[in-house]
Write a structure and sequence with these properties.
This protein is an alpha+beta fold. It has one helix at residues 5-41, and strands spanning 61-71, 75-79, 83-87, 92-100, 106-115, 123-127, 134-136, 141-150, 165-174, 182-183. Helices cover 19% and strands 37% of the residues. The chain has a 6-stranded mixed beta sheet, with no helix packed on it. A 4-stranded antiparallel beta sheet has the order 2-4-8-6, with no helix packed on it. The protein is flat and about 75 Å long.
């Protein structure tokens, strides 16, 4: 028994409508899924979060340089040290000073990455101001710590073992305040 042309047209239209809905959903999900993938794997120089330190420190040293930028906002942003020499696996702390030079409260979010990109697979952050948006009051200066380590596997990975230095780069951009935004308070205590 053959179906009528009208029935086949309705079925084809329903399938195509389903494909359109599926593709639209995939387009909206692509950005958060890509961000989660990059944070989990270090792809594209994105540094994954860590819940705890590496637990193993090796004698190999690495120079970590820090690059800071602001994009179209009246903030001054700089590392307290331009470079640190660390041991692979050791937990390290870097401090960054941020000043809001304007007469209004401003919320910013720091985008971050690591160069060379292949090193991103081995750099882990335990704590970073870049995980959340930050609100600074007019003329407020805040000191933010970044607690991080570079996995010992960096020394044996064929893609990274020849590197003697890497760069952690942060760029603050202004964002609208959002629910749960961190309002910067007193400078972070030093260990």
């Amino acid at each position: 028994m053959s179906r009528s042309p009208s029935h086949r047209h309705h079925r084809t239209a329903a399938i195509l409508g389903g494909v359109v809905v599926l593709m639209t959903g995939a387009a909206f999900a692509a950005v958060p899924l890509y961000k989660a993938f990059c944070q989990a794997t270090g792809y594209g120089g994105t540094i994954p979060r860590a819940a705890q330190g590496s637990g193993k420190v090796i004698d190999r040293e690495l120079v970590v340089a820090f690059d800071t930028n602001v994009h179209d906002m009246p903030w001054t942003f700089q590392p307290e040290q331009r470079r640190q020499t660390i041991k692979l696996g050791a937990t390290s702390v870097a401090y960054f000073k941020v000043t809001n030079n304007s007469d209004r409260a401003i919320t910013g979010r720091a985008a971050y990455n690591v160069a060379p990109e292949l090193a991103g697979a081995h750099v882990r952050k335990l704590h970073c101001f870049c995980f959340d948006a930050q609100t600074l009051q007019p003329h407020q200066t805040v000191e933010f710590p970044v607690v991080y380590f570079v996995e010992p596997a960096f020394a044996t990975d064929p893609n990274t073992r020849t590197y003697g230095d890497i760069t952690l780069s942060y760029t603050f951009v202004e964002v609208p305040p959002e629910k749960g935004t961190t309002t910067a308070g007193a400078p972070a205590p030093r260990a």
